[in-house]
Amino acid sequence: MNPFIYGVPAALTAAAGTIAYGAAHPRGQLFGKTICRTNSPRKLAITFDDGPNPAITPKLLDLLDRYKAHATFFLIGRFVRECPALVKETVARGHEVGNHTELHPNLFWLNQIKVQVELRLCHDAIRNTIGTPPKWFRPPFGLRNPWVVPVARELGCRTVMWTLIPGDWRDRPAEWLISRMQPIASHAQGISKDSSSVTGGTGDILCLHDGGHRELNADRTRTLAALEYWLPRWRDLGLEFVTIDQAVRTPAP
Question: Do 216 and 55 touch, CB atoms closer than 8 A?
């Protein structure tokens, strides 16, 4: 029997697995370099996708203010145009905003031109609203193809993924979500037990959602409740709540 007959399916399976990993895994770098972690184990970058959302984002901003927490919001372009005042308020309170495309499609299936349109429309919506262009981009569903990261780079954006995405869009009780966010505390407790790791290593990027990509005013009360539980506990464990810019910035000597 010709071994080529067996070799071809195996090679195709391996190639498909590699492509799937590069397209979907948050730490996959096959289709371009992404930011996956903060540059210090003490830095926690809390990020929110699919906003702005008039039903939740204002309450979330108040909660973050209470704990002096800075965060990064990845915005959908069409919602930016509907809620410009809320975007401006988010930035005025010390948070960063990033590009999350115009309509939140699955970019993996789009060609280069369609990817460019999705990112450019959101880019322009943010720039026209706050006066400066975004520096950060997150692909919807975390999915990439060979054009996504390069197109973002052409717009001056670095692509941001995550270390933990607990699934706050699911219709589950807040207690379920709280338990899914436990790894952040576990990592911080590990740092506290090993003082030598404080000056080296990396930290977490948490991906949550303050909106829903299908329509405005999505119910994200469980996200708010989970953060009300965890923010004081993470703070007491010594974590610093930072924007993505602060998460990757090299400290001054």
Answer: yes
